[in-house]
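Fill in residues.
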């Protein structure tokens, strides 16, 4: 088994695309939730809240030949990957094009506009809005393919269209690719674009927050007064690299990936199961060869939904006990769906490097139904952590757990 390290990180989020700006927002304790009045014409939609990213124009240096196959979700993925490659010192390195670098990337779905165009075709018979690129923009593996094509990467493609576990699965599968010697480098991450249909999915399940006139007070993961999630958008990419290769080229190493767990509840499409969540965490610990006591912080999935928060807290307490510090970064930028696992991995690693961890915003009183844990509330927490865990759980009962360590 080869060691796997992270040598590049980058992303596009509602709090910005540079860590300095993101860090400042986390320390100020502000979220990016706003009311989206454009959704007023959806007459049965209960929520009007979202966390959109700042407008991302196609950069001038992106060739039209390569961007015409991209909807917004792929553009976000490519931009995040460009920032990660630059951070790794690989952006202009021709060696990434020789087959040693692959791509593991995901999103909940492709872009929504071509779906609308095909819907119009079915409804009216008119193909006026369908183009030769419509399918490529909407296909489930659009992010993975467009990232690969943009940089002429010839390694393996691992699409992870797995709802809210897409980003974390991508990182985990990329880690396994390198650990088993199948690739030397991997671009791994997740992306999501904001749309009315993406929000309606959760709204129809009564899982969205309706504090439409109090956007700063929601979401509220683990709080007794939480009323649902807020959907966000964005992307993040990590450059994973075989350790000896990274050392040989003098790369800066952010962290090491040491453990990955992934399983399925095998029970219900939308209702999570604490027991199998706990199994995924133990799988990651076993993969890393670590005892539960070695983990100093857990980044929670923490969606602010009724059953999800309870199940996750019970699973975390079962594995680690009440002593575990835990917080949810979704309280700052909402639930970015297929991107959340990658964005949260990026931010968790940045916090580990600096020995502080952001609290869960709007968490004033923990729901008594949630398990007793050391919920980080109010102020950021100083923790000198050698090993941290980041968890994500998706529709279909898909559970993922990643462990990151300081480089030894």
């Amino acid at each position: 088994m080869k060691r796997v390290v992270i040598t590049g990180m980058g992303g596009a989020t509602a709090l910005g695309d540079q860590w300095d700006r993101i860090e400042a927002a986390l320390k100020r304790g502000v979220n990016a939730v706003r009311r989206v009045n454009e959704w007023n014409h959806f007459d049965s939609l209960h929520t009007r809240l979202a966390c959109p990213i700042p407008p991302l124009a196609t950069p001038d240096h992106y060739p039209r030949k390569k961007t015409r196959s991209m909807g917004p979700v792929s553009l976000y993925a490519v931009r995040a990957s460009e920032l990660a490659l630059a951070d790794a010192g690989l952006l202009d390195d021709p060696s990434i094009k020789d087959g040693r670098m692959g791509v593991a990337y995901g999103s909940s779905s492709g872009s929504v506009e071509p779906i609308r165009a095909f819907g119009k075709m079915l409804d009216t018979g008119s193909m006026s809005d369908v183009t030769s690129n419509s399918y490529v923009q909407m296909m489930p593996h659009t992010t993975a393919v467009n990232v690969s094509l943009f940089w002429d990467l010839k390694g393996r493609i691992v699409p992870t269209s797995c709802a809210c576990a897409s980003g974390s699965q991508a990182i985990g599968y990329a880690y396994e690719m390198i650990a088993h010697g199948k690739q030397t480098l991997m671009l791994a991450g997740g992306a999501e674009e904001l749309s009315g249909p993406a929000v309606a999915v959760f709204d129809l399940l009564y899982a969205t927050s309706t504090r439409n006139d109090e956007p700063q007070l929601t979401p509220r993961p683990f709080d007794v007064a939480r009323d649902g999630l807020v959907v966000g958008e964005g992307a993040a990419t990590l450059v994973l690299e075989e350790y000896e290769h990274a050392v040989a080229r003098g790369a800066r190493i952010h962290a090491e990936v040491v453990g990955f767990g992934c399983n399925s509840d095998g029970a219900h499409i939308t209702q999570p199961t604490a027991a199998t969540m706990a199994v995924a965490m133990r799988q990651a610990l076993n993969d890393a060869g670590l005892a539960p006591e070695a983990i100093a912080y857990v980044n929670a999935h923490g969606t602010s939904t009724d059953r999800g928060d309870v199940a996750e807290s019970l699973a975390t307490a079962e594995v680690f006990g009440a002593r575990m510090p835990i917080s949810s970064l979704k309280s700052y930028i909402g639930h970015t769906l297929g991107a959340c696992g990658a964005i949260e991995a990026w931010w968790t690693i940045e916090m580990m490097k600096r020995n502080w961890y952001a609290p869960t915003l709007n968490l004033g009183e923990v729901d008594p139904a949630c398990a007793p844990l050391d919920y980080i509330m109010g102020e950021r927490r100083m923790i000198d952590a050698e090993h941290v865990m980041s968890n994500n759980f998706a529709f279909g009962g898909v559970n993922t757990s990643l462990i990151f360590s300081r480089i030894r």
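The chain has 13 helices and 16 strands.
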